[in-house]
UniProtKB/TrEMBL annotation:
Start and end residues of each Cullin family profile domain: 374-603
Name of protein: Cullin family profile domain-containing protein
Family designation: Belongs to the cullin family.
Species name: Sphagnum jensenii
A Pfam family reported for this protein in Swiss-Prot or TrEMBL: Cullin
Length: 734
């Protein structure tokens, strides 16, 4: 059985030959060419765009795309040259107007031509990588008009001239400028940049270089900055109205460089008007303007910051080292706070709360506050003044504000342990005399110190408050034992029992008590020791106060609030009207400095002189004679007689305090060394110094020489040993 053969069928094309008019392409292009002429001559209203589109479509369809495209280029080039001749012939200011007018007409004509040749754009242009019709029209405009030898330089000169005229105060046609620069942008970024922007920036650089030189010669710093700010805003406004937005960073960079960057040093250092003058005179607006302008240039803010730091350190050095200012510690600290407030306000209002400026301010304050070794003492005295009397009647918020400012200064101190030593002395006096304005304020400051430095820093301070509360309870028990047992005549005793170690007691204090006072003291001692075992009481007569009822001539009666020492002296005059210095010294057995201060406050202070001194003088000498002042009078019933005492420590007292601080530091340094060596086991000398300093710098800056001595001490006590091979290495002995 044979398999049927498969047959392949083929469809033959239509055999009839279609004859094409040999002049079809020329005739069709002639129609299109005439239409293009009509479009450029503004006679497009009578054209059939549908028919024109079909003709262009057929030419491309019949493979005449190349002819259509090349003829289009020739025709449009011819029109561009005609337009160029018209523009070239324009005179004066009409040149730009004519160019703008022809450009707008060209865009309209180009849109119509592109619509007619849309099919060619989609097919022939894409297939043969030709330039699209619209882009072709722009390129021909660029090459034949904008870059025409007779137009190019003239166009640039007129544009730059208009900008220059506007900079010098003339009013120009911004709308026309916008149209021309937008034309350049539309022709391509390279056209705008090469034909206009680069020369524009060069001209701006020359203009502002000359103008800034004139400004610097005729203006002070503030006026110059106002002019610079105005110029910068004008250029930004110019960009907004008739330049390409991409030009903004470039033109502002030119202004910043010529007007600000190249003149910075001269500006900030101007005599009587530069940065220092602005800071001194609180010119917040001018300083803010300087900050905002200088931040635009790379090293602008650093220039301001460096000069501000230098000025602040010089000012601070004068403030803390001026002997006249050191006479009043409270005023000394207040000046520091005022200076800090001043620069905080400058940074807030003018420098945008810039952290780098705040850091520079903190660094400067830390630098000059620590130039004066008495800064810790003075800050403590300032606190003492405020908590004694300076904050009376002040709201809680204001109290917290003052305490926060004190803490701010405290953070700058490198010797915080010295502050602690003085603060403890002053706090003790306030608590024992009952002269603190607010226990809440006292406790608030201790909480702040505890937060800043830790529990160990404030443990003894908190212990002082605990002792005060315990003493009140103890006195209630003591007074209960006295009630009903004896008559209420005689002195009344109020005792504060202070824990040794928590309070800054003085071992050298001594005095002979009057018999009636000594009797009461013995009774309290007997009561206290009967209720507490293993305790020992030592009377601190230098820290107490007393209220005495005194009767003067003519029956004048007053209640005198005096120190314990003053009370002992006055009690001697119950049995004598006249005593010599030697007799008082022998009867009281007081140390000479304490005796002289007490006598001076009783006899030499006007309005408080319950004693008379012969001969009369401000100072106490060993040959003086003292008499009870019968003629003493005061409009107040209660008279407080404060002990004449230097607000600041005397030189011997200062040396003693410093010695105590150094002694207290030794165990802290040794503890730090042991902690470090216990963790590291083996360490060289320099690294030990570095680690110890790092650990202790929050409290004080240890002296490397002292650290070395403590290392030697630890070696002697066999906590550490030197390495046998490398003697600069130390090993921890477990």
């Amino acid at each position: 059985m044979s398999q049927a053969k498969k047959k392949n069928f083929k469809i033959e094309p239509f055999k009839h030959k279609v004859e094409m008019d040999p002049k079809y392409a020329e005739k069709t292009w002639k129609i299109l060419e005439d239409a293009i002429h009509e479009i450029y001559n503004h006679n497009a209203s009578g054209l059939s765009f549908e028919e024109l589109y079909r003709n262009a479509y057929n030419m491309v369809l019949h493979k005449y795309g190349e002819k259509l495209y090349s003829e289009l280029v020739n025709t449009m080039t011819q029109h561009m040259r005609e337009i160029a001749m018209i523009v070239e012939a324009s005179q004066g200011d009409l040149f730009l107007e004519e160019l703008d007018s022809k450009w707008r007409e060209h865009n309209k004509s180009l849109q119509m031509i592109r619509d007619i040749l849309m099919y060619m754009d989609r097919t022939y242009v894409n297939n043969f990588n030709k330039t699209p019709v619209h882009e072709l029209g722009l390129n021909l405009w660029r090459d034949n008009i904008v870059r025409s030898p007779k137009i190019k330089d003239r166009l640039l000169d007129m544009l730059l001239d208009l900008v220059h005229r506007e900079r010098t105060g003339e009013v120009i046609n911004r709308g026309l400028m916008w149209n021309i620069t937008k034309m350049l942008v539309d022709l391509g970024p390279s056209v705008y940049q090469d034909d206009f922007e680069r020369p524009f920036l060069d001209a701006a650089s020359d203009f502002y270089r000359l103008e800034s030189q004139q400004f610097i010669e005729t203006s002070d710093c503030a006026d110059y900055l106002r002019k610079a700010e105005k110029r910068l805003n004008e250029e930004i406004d110019r960009i907004t109205h008739y330049l390409d937005p991409k030009s903004e960073p470039k033109i502002t960079s030119v202004v910043e460089r010529e007007v600000i960057g190249n003149r910075m040093k001269l500006l900030v250092e101007m005599d009587n008007s530069g940065l220092v003058s602005m800071l001194i005179d609180d010119k917040y607006e001018d300083l803010g303007r300087m900050y905002n302008l200088f931040r635009r240039v790379p090293t602008g803010l650093q220039t301001i910051r460096d000069l501000m730091t230098s000025h602040l350190r010089d000012t601070g050095r004068q403030l803390v080292l001026d002997p006249e200012r050191l006479k009043d510690p409270v005023e000394f600290v207040q000046r520091l706070l005022d200076e800090k407030d001043k620069y905080d306000k400058v940074i807030q209002l003018s420098f945008n709360n810039d952290k780098t400026f705040q850091n520079a301010l903190n660094s400067s304050f830390e630098f000059f506050i620590n130039l004066n070794v008495r800064s810790p003492e003075f800050i403590s005295l300032f606190v003492d003044d405020k908590l004694r009397k300076g904050l009376k009647g002040v709201s809680e918020e204001d109290v917290e504000s003052v305490l926060d400012k004190v803490m701010m200064l405290f953070r700058y101190l490198q010797e915080k342990d010295v502050f602690e030593k003085y603060y403890k002395q002053h706090l003790a006096k306030r608590l024992l005399s009952g002269r603190t304005v607010s226990d809440d304020a006292e406790r608030s400051l201790i909480v702040k110190l505890k937060t800043e430095c830790g529990y160990q820093f404030t443990s003894k301070l908190e212990g002082m408050f605990t002792d005060m509360k315990t003493s009140r309870d103890t006195m209630q028990g003591f007074n209960a034992t006295l009630a009903g047992s004896e008559s209420n005549e005689g002195p009344t005793l109020a005792v504060q029992v202070l824990t040794t170690g928590s309070w800054p007691t003085q071992s050298g204090a001594r005095c002979n008590m009057p018999t009636e006072i000594l009797s009461m003291c013995d009774k309290f001692k007997q009561y206290y020791l009967s209720t507490h075992t293993g305790r020992r009481l030592t009377w601190q007569t230098n820290m107490g106060t007393a209220d005495l009822k005194a009767t003067f001539g003519n029956g004048n009666k007053h209640e005198l609030n005096v120190s314990t020492y003053q009370m002992f002296i006055l009690c001697l005059f119950n049995t004598a009207d006249r005593l010599t210095y030697r007799e008082i010294e022998q009867a009281t057995d007081m140390l000479a400095p304490d005796l002289k201060r007490s006598l001076q406050s009783l006899a030499c202070v006007k309005g408080k002189n319950v004693l008379r001194k012969d001969p009369m003088s401000k100072d106490i000498s060993e040959g003086d004679i003292f008499l009870f002042n019968d003629k003493f009078s005061s409009k107040f019933y209660k008279v407080k007689i404060s002990t004449v005492v230097a607000q600041k420590e005397s030189e011997p007292e200062k040396q003693e305090t410093r010695q105590k601080v150094e002694e207290d530091r030794k165990p802290q340094i040794e503890a730090a060394i042991v902690r470090i060596m216990k963790a590291r086991r083996l360490l060289d000398h320099n690294n030990i110094i570095s680690e110890v300093t790092k650990q202790l710098q929050a409290r004080f800056l240890p002296n490397p020489a002292v650290i070395k001595k403590r290392i030697e001490s630890l070696i002697e006590r066999e906590f550490l040993e030197r390495d046998r091979v490398d003697r600069k290495l130390y090993r921890y002995l477990a």
